[in-house]
Amino acid sequence: MDKLLEIVGDISGWLWGYPIILLLAGTGLYLTFLLGFFQFRYPVYIFKQTFGSIFKKPKGKGTVTPLQALTSALASTIGAANIVGVPAAIMFGGPGAVFWMWVIAFIGMAIKFSESVLAIKYREKNEDGEYVGGPMYYMTKGLNMKWLGVIFAFALMIELIPSIMVQGNAVAAAVIETFMIDGLYTGIAVAIIVSLVVFGGIQRIGKVTEIFVPFMALIYVGAALVVLFMNLGKLPEVLELIFTYAFQPMSAIGGFAGAAIGEIIRWGFARGLYSNEAGLGTAPIAHAAATTDHPFRQGFWAIIGIVVDTLIVCTATAFVVLSSGVWTREGAMEDPSALTAAAFTQYFGSFGGILVAVSQVFFFISTIIVVVFYGSKMAEFLFGSFAGKAIKVVYFAAIVLGSVGAAKTIWQFLDLALAMILIPNILAVLHLSKEVKQLKNEFFTSEKYYLKDIKKEDNAA
Q1: CA 432 to chain centre
Q2: Strand pairing partners for 292?
Q3: 256 pairs with which residues across the strands?
Q4: How far apart are CA 400 and CA 390, in angstroms?
Q5: How confident is the model at residue 255 (pLDDT cuts 50, 70, 90)?
Q6: Residue 436: which pLDDT band, with cuts at 50, 70 and 90?
Q7: Sign (positive/negative) of CA torsion 370, 128, 137, 443?
Q8: CA-based torsion, 361, 365, 366, 367: positive or negative
Q9: What are phi and psi of 155, to 5 degrees?
Q10: What confidence tens digit (pLDDT) does each residue in 388-418 have?
């Protein structure tokens, strides 16, 4: 068994190194060219159509508001990667990795946008009258490859069991470390909280995440902004570190072992992509339920998801870690995941450690809520409405089992299962990319959409 786990670990490590990073980066560049660099050309318009329309009644059909769809998707992506993943990227790739994290965020926007647009185009209503969609639907209806949709749905449904165990274990570990509460009790409490939300369907999830996600992100980013103002004089120094060492190797400093240019780019790309889940096909499941009059309009909200997750939350972590200097301390390389807590503790004392632990708990629970919903949609697609409800019970059990450290051996298979989800989704998006371009042309040339919005703005001015 140990030999098998070692082989699986080696395969996963290789796959999630350069092969998948190059696949995602290449796909993002291709889609960016195909769609005419729209994420760079229309940033003001995109912000007006998203954050600028929060208090307006959404147009079109759907089950939840565009904002609720976004916060549901964000609940899944904002998590451990933002708090403990960013310092790991800095320790293995140096400060320059942050620059490449930003670059891949802009490129990844084209992927996340495209998969969300396709999810809206090929969505349908389920037995409960809710709009459902995602990769399994555009594989089935867009590519006429139901077998590929079945593979995607089954792989994601199964992969979420160990994934939820990992999240459950992480919540329990954070609570034990900070509040000394037994992991079993934490697991049961989390399972109850999650069940109260997810059994209400996407509408209840949307209402909860609409409040929960902005609240938890504002607390964490707000604390980072306090650190920024406390260290405003260090901002030029931090930016110089990021931009200088994005293009040249960095030698060892204290606890930092140094990094070659290839590793700098690799770790920056990896952190950006793993954090915002561009290409994984999960966020489109949430966006498919949004009320919208055109698939392209909801795609803008998917772009905002990357802005919040990677450009704001991950950057906040990077600044705190770099400005504090904890990344250069002796022994920093031994436990990069602890650096964010160490940095906040340096500025806020013991409260800083508690702040990070509580943020992690909030992030982990919100992630569990949404991935349980994702898994139930997979079961529903494969076996019908009842199966969608039944699989939730399995996931609740996984939370409790994970909180007591059960089934750690199967965690080795997690990355391999994720690759089985990501690769079919990327292939489907590439095959259907011309349809995304057609929708783009329709949106930007029609008097019903972009031209109408621009005229309204001109008249208002």
Answers
A1: 22
A2: 61
A3: 253
A4: 17
A5: low
A6: very high
A7: negative
A8: positive
A9: -60, -45
A10: 999 999 999 999 988 887 555 555 667 777 8
71 vs 68: CA distance, rounded Å: 5
Q: How many CA atoms lie within 13 A of 41 on its CB side?
A: 8
pTM: 0.90
Could you give the residue ranges of the DSSP H alpha helices within 254-411?
261-276, 283-287, 295-306, 315-324, 339-348, 350-383, 385-403
More confident: 415 or 434: 434
Q: CA 319, CA 309: separation in Å to the nearest integer?
A: 15
Nearest to 390 by CA among 372, 408, 407: 372
Residue 239's CB is within 10 A of a number of other CB atoms, namely 15
Cα–Cα distance, 167 to 191 (Å, whole number)? 12
The H or E element that residue 243 is part of is helix 235-244
Closest CA to 85 of 101, 104, 72: 101
Using one digit for the tens of pLDDT, what is the confidence trace for 288-322?
Answer: 999 999 999 999 999 999 999 999 999 999 999 99
Enter the tokens of residue 224: 């980072």
Amino acid letter, residue 157: M
As a whole-number percent, the residues of the chain with pLDDT over 70 amount to: 95
Judge contact between 206 and 72, C-beta under 8 A: yes
Any idea which fold 2-431 has?
A: Amino acid/polyamine transporter I (1.20.1740)
Distance (Å, rounded) from C-alpha 442 to C-alpha 173? 50
DSSP state of 79: S
Beta-carbon contacts of 114 under 8 Å, excluding residues fewer than 6 positions away, are 31, 35, 299, 429, 432, 433, 436
Burial call 81-120: b when 16+ CB within 10 Å, e when fewer: bbbbbbbbbbbbbbbbbbbbbbbbbbbbbbbbbbbbbbbb
